[in-house]
UniProtKB/TrEMBL annotation:
<dbReference type="InterPro" id="IPR036188">
    <property type="entry name" value="FAD/NAD-bd_sf"/>
</dbReference>
<dbReference type="InterPro" id="IPR050703">
    <property type="entry name" value="Flavin_MAO"/>
</dbReference>
<comment type="similarity">
    <text>Belongs to the flavin monoamine oxidase family.</text>
</comment>
<dbReference type="Pfam" id="PF01593">
    <property type="entry name" value="Amino_oxidase"/>
</dbReference>
<dbReference type="InterPro" id="IPR002937">
    <property type="entry name" value="Amino_oxidase"/>
</dbReference>
<feature type="domain" description="Amine oxidase">
    <location>
        <begin position="102"/>
        <end position="341"/>
    </location>
</feature>
<dbReference type="Pfam" id="PF13450">
    <property type="entry name" value="NAD_binding_8"/>
</dbReference>
<protein>
    <submittedName>
        <fullName>Amine oxidase</fullName>
    </submittedName>
</protein>
Amino acid sequence: MSETRIAIIGGGLAGLYAAYRLGKQGIAFDLFEARNRLGGRILSTESGGFDLGPSWFWPDFQLRMHNLVSELGLPVFEQYTTGATMMEDRATGAVRGAGYLPGNTSMRVEGGTSQLVRALAGLLPREHMHLNAELQAVHLEEQGLRLVFAGTLAQLPVYSHSWLALPPRLAAGIQFSPSLPEQNVQQLTAVPTWMAAHAKYVARYATPFWREAGLSGDAFSRIGPLAEIHDACNEQGAALFGFFGVNAAQRAGLSALELKAACRVQMVRLFGEQAAEPIDDSVYDWAADPYTATAQDRVSSGEHGSLDSRFTFAPPWTGRVQLIGSEAAVEQGGYMEGALAAVERVLAGLK
Ligand SMILES: Cc1cc2nc3c(=O)[nH]c(=O)nc-3n(C[C@H](O)[C@H](O)[C@H](O)COP(=O)(O)OP(=O)(O)OC[C@H]3O[C@@H](n4cnc5c(N)ncnc54)[C@H](O)[C@@H]3O)c2cc1C
C-alpha cells in the first residue's frame, strides 16, 4: 500500500467538504453516499428551498461556515426576528409576547442550506461520486482497505484510508474485519446524533401575513404538535417552519397527513385564519430516516453529543479509518461548523 487514495463514506456536509479539500490538494478520493441524494441532514424543499434540516449558522463563533459560504459566493441573510413572539399553553391559550432575541446573529443561506450542498457538489468530479452506495463492510487486506457496499458497484480499487463522514452511531453499524474491539463500538454508540430525534414542519404561504400583523413568526408552544416555530421566508416566498414537540415514538403512530393537519390547526391558533391554507406544506421526520437515526436516537432526548477528542480506532485500524462527521468534532460537534472542524482536524493529520 503506497499511494494515498481515500474512500469518503457519506455525502453530507462533512463528506462533501472533505472531497472539496482533498480535490484542492490533488489527493485521490472516491465518495460513497447511501442515499440517492447528497446533503445528508441538509435538505431543503424542492419548491422554494425551505429547510427541513439545518437553517442557521452563527458567524460570530462559526468562522469556518462563514468563510466557506463566502468562498463559495453564496448569498446569506439574517434570520427575521422583528415583531412580537407568540406563546401558547393550556392555561393562557395563544398570547402575544415580547420579541424573541436570539443571543447571536443567526444567518441563513439564500435559497436554502442545500445551496451549500449544490455549490460543493458542483465543484467535485462526478466520476468519483457514487450515490446509492451504502457501505456495509470494510476488510483490511495486504494491499489496503477493501470496501463492501449494499448495491453492486463497478470494480473498486483498494483504499489507503477510509474517512467515515457519518454519525458515530451509524459508523458502529459497519462491519469491520478484523472486527473493532467492543470498547470502540461502545464509544461510538455512546454519542447521540444531534437532531436525529427531531422532525420539522414547513408551510409555504402566499404572503408573510404574520409580519404584516407585527409578528416575527417566532412562537413557543406547550400544546403542540410544534414546540418552536420561526419565520422561514426567503427570496422565493413566504413560509413558517416549526420543530415538533411530540416525540419520535408518538410521531411514528401518525401519518404525514395527520401531522400536517394538526400543525395547520396550531398555526391558525397562533397566527390566525390566514394560516389555515398554506400553498403547500411538508413534514420531514429525521428519526424515521435510517441514514440519520438509529433506534437509540429515537428514544433519546436529542442532546448534543461529541465524540471524546482522544478517540481513535484501535489497531490495525488506527490512522486507516477516521471519523469526520460533525459529531467527531472537538468543537461545535453536531453543528454544520462541527462537520467542517472534524474534516480539518483529520486533514491536518494526513501524512
Ligand atoms: C432538523 C435539523 C435541524 C438542524 N439545524 C441545524 C442548524 O440550524 N445549524 C447547524 O449548524 N446544524 C443544524 N443541524 C445539524 C446539521 O444538519 C449537521 O451538523 C450536519 O448536517 C452534519 O453533517 P455530516 O456530514 O456530519 O452528517 P450527515 O449530514 O448526517 O451526513 C452523513 C451522510 O452519510 C450517509 N450515510 C449513512 N450511512 C452510510 C453508509 N453506511 N454508507 C454510505 N453513506 C452513509 C447519509 O446518508 C448522509 O448523507 C440540524 C439537523 C437537523 C436534522
